[in-house]
Amino acid sequence: MAAIVAGKVQTPDEWKREQGMGPSEVLLRDLTLNDQSNINGDSSKEGEKEVDVDELFAEELPGWRGYIEWEDYPDKRAEAAAMLAKVASTFPPPPEFQLGPIPDTNPVLEGVRWKMWHKALGGPLKSIPEESWLRVIQEKHVDMLHLLQFPYNGEPPKRLVTAKPITPNPLFFVRNHGGIPDIDPSKYFLRLDGLVKEPKNISLADLQNEELFPRQTSMVTIQCSGTRRIEQINEYAGEGDEMINAPWAEGAIGTAQWTGVSLKKVIKYCGGLIDGAKHLELYGAETYFKHLEVQNYVVSVPWSKVKLNEVLLAWEMNGEPLPKIHGYPLRVVVFGYIGARSVKWLYRIKAIPKPSQHPVQSKEYLYFNGQVGKHNQLYTKGIQIQEMPVSSAIMEPLSKEIIIHNGSISVKGWAYSGGGHWPERVEVSPDGGFVWYEVPLANLSPKRKFAWRTWHIDLPVDAEGWLELTVRCWDNSLNTQPTFVRSAWNWGLHVTSSCHRVKIYSVNKSKKDTRERLELFEKHGIPFAPLTRPTEEFHIQEEPEVLKFWEEHDPRDVED
Ligand SMILES: Nc1nc2c(c(=O)[nH]1)N[C@H]1C(S)=C(S)[C@@H](COP(=O)(O)O)O[C@H]1N2
Ligand SMILES: [Mo]
C-alpha cells in the first residue's frame, strides 16, 4: 500500500476521500509526529499447512453433522490455533463496509475470511460454508436480504418485517457466528453438568415427555443487539468485523410462539444446583472463530432469570419443528434478553459461579461509553448487554421515498421493550420530533410481556417537501428512546435504540396548487420520479403570470 502524505500525492479518488466517502483505507493524520505520513499496516507473509485433519477435527458424535467439540479438548484447540496462526497473514483483511460503500450485491458481504478459516482447518469443517448456504436457500424466504453469506446473517425486507405480528418462520431473521449443524434428533441429547447435583444426559424424547416435564408455549420476541446498526454506521464508523458487526437494518427482530420446557424444570430434574452456582453456561454446537482461536458458541444466563421460567428450551417455532437454521433440534429462548443468549443447536448446559468467560459473553456484545474506541477499549470497560431497552422502527414508508398523499401518510412499524417491559404508547412525528401523534391503541397489536407490538397510523401531514418521520415508544415503565443516534453511539455499534428517522418527500395533493402541478406532469406524460430530474417539458410558470405578479409586487428591489 502506497503511503500517502497529505497534500503531496493526489489519488484519483481524492474528492471522495475529502468527503469522507472512502475508499477503504482510512487516512491517518498523527499530529504527534513531525512527519505526517499515513500508517497502513501491510503484512502479507507466506504460510503453509499440510496436516491430515480428518481425524484431528473429526465430528464428536455420529449423527451430529457440524458438531466438533472444542471446549473439552484444550490440546486440539491449541493445534487448531497454531494452524490458523501460520496462515492468518495470507488472508485478506475484513472488508471495509463502513467508510467505503456498502456493496450493491445480495449477499451484501461474503465472509471471505470466515470461509477461509474453515477451509484452513479442513476436515469436516471444509464444506460447512457451502452446506450452510444450501440450508439458507432451503429454509429461508426468497426475499430475504442476505447481509453476510457465511456465517449466514439475513433479515427480511422492511415490507415483510411487520406484515404480521407473528413472524413466519421463513422470514425470521438469522444471525449465525458459524456454520449450521445438522443434528439427528434420535441421536440428540442434552448434557447437564457443572454445579448441578446430579449431572445428566437427557434425550430429546425425554425432554418432550410431558410426564417428566410440563410443556410451555410462550410468545417471545428475539432481537439482535445489532438491529438498526446501519444507523450508527451512517453516523460514524465503529468496530468493523463483517460478522460481529454485520450492517443490520431494522429487521434483525422477530416474534414467534416457542414451545419447549422451562430450563428451571430441567435443573430441578438434575436435583437442583450446588451452592455457589449462579449462572448457567449454554453451549452451541457449531465452531466459532475468534481472534484466531477456535471454540464452540458459549454464553451464559443468570440463575435468577432461569428461576422466573423465562429461559425456555424450545423445539417448536410457531407450531412447527424448529427449522435447522434456527437451532434444530433444541435451542434456548431467553425472554427479553439480547438474541445472543438464545443459543441454537444447544448441546450442553453447565452450572457455574460467575458469568461465562467465553468470548461471546465477555468480549463481544459489550456496550461502551461514547469515548471508548480503538485507542482505549478494554473488555472490562463495556457493559455486558442482557436486557434490551425500549426501541421502535418505521417499516413504511422507506427512506427517501416521494409520498404523494391527501393530507395523511400511512406509517407502519414495530415497537419493543426488553426485560419484561412492553410498549404502552407509540408516537409518530412528521417533523423530526416536535409534534407527536399517538398511534391509536386499536392500531397496535395486543400487548404481551415479552413481545413486540406492530402498529400503523394515518399520520396527519400538511407540510410538503423533505420531512423527517420519527417514531418513539414509551414502555410500561415510562422508559423512552434517546432522541438521536449520536446520543447513544458506541464503538461496538450495539443497541441502536434512538428514535428511528425516515426522510420522505411529501407531496400533498389536497393542496390545489400541488394537485394542478401533478395534473400538468400527467398531461405531459412525465413521471414525478426521479425527484432530482429538472422539469424541461413545460414552463413551470407562464410569462404573463410572472409579469402580472411583477406589476403588483416588485420582483426584487425597492425605491428610495
Ligand atoms: N449456537 C448459536 N446460537 C446463537 C447464535 C449463534 O451464532 N450460534 N447467534 C445468537 C444471536 S447473536 C442471535 S441475535 C440469535 C438469533 O437467532 P435466530 O438466528 O434464530 O434469529 O441467535 C443466537 N444464538
Ligand atoms: Mo445477535
UniProtKB/TrEMBL annotation:
Its cofactor is Mo-molybdopterin. GO terms for biological process: sulfur compound metabolic process. Residues 384-505 form the Moybdenum cofactor oxidoreductase dimerisation domain. The keyword Secreted does not apply. SUPFAM superfamilies: E set domains, Oxidoreductase molybdopterin-binding domain. Residues 177-358 form the Oxidoreductase molybdopterin-binding domain. InterPro entries: Ig_E-set, MoCF_OxRdtse_dimer, Mopterin_OxRdtase_euk, OxRdtase_Mopterin-bd_dom, OxRdtase_Mopterin-bd_sf. It comes from the Eukaryota. GO terms for cellular component: mitochondrion. Keywords: Metal-binding, Molybdenum, Oxidoreductase. The keyword Cell membrane does not apply. One of its GO terms (molecular function) is molybdenum ion binding. Pfam families: Mo-co_dimer (PF03404), Oxidored_molyb (PF00174). This is Sulfite oxidase.
